[in-house]
Design goal:
Structural class: alpha+beta
Order of helices and strands: EEEEHEEEHH
CATH architecture: Roll
CATH superfamily: Sporulation-specific cell division protein SsgB
Number of strands: 7
Distance between the termini: 43 Å
Helix content: 10-25%
Shape: globular
């Protein structure tokens, strides 16, 4: 899928996505900044996680999965210790959020507008208020997935 419609989620994810917000990231290099279309999306079925799809123009987007709290904390103070770190940029361009994505072979520094991130987080908070995530987890399905069992089918509804 190429980046044509920022509100279009790939078909294999569309049924579960509860919230999606387009975000225009800037990939920051030493002497070059490149605009990178992307979007943040949230699935109530995974209440602790957010997904970030980054479109490189080469087919399917690159998807990063990380904690919603990591994104929220990164708006106030440096957050993250692994593949994703987030912090505000107070030196070069005040008011921007810096997201560092580290893969197996390389890393990328992305710059985003805090207003877009804050808007996305407000949308997720309306769906699942912080602190209530546990109420949205189906532990039977989660344990089944961990054990390699297929997800149970919903029961047939009898018509009255």
């Amino acid at each position: 899928m190429t980046y044509q419609d920022p509100t279009r989620v790939p078909a294999n994810r569309a049924a579960s996505v509860s919230c999606i917000v387009p975000v225009l990231l800037e990939a920051v290099g030493s002497d070059l900044t490149v605009l990178v279309p992307s979007f943040l999306w949230y699935d109530v079925g995974e209440p602790y996680a957010i997904h970030m799809d980054i479109f490189t123009g080469h087919g399917e987007p690159i998807t990063w999965l990380f904690a919603r709290d990591l994104l929220r904390t990164g708006l106030r103070e440096p957050a993250g210790q692994g593949d994703v770190t987030i912090r505000t940029n107070r030196r070069e361009r005040p008011g921007h959020v810096l997201i560092t994505l580290t893969g197996e072979r390389s890393s990328a520094l992305m710059r985003a507008r805090p207003s877009e991130i804050e808007y996305f987080l407000r949308q997720t908070d309306d769906l699942v208020p912080p602190g209530t995530e546990h109420q949205h987890l189906d532990l039977d399905i989660l344990v089944g997935q961990l054990l390699g069992r297929p997800a149970p089918r919903p029961p047939d509804r009898k018509r009255a």
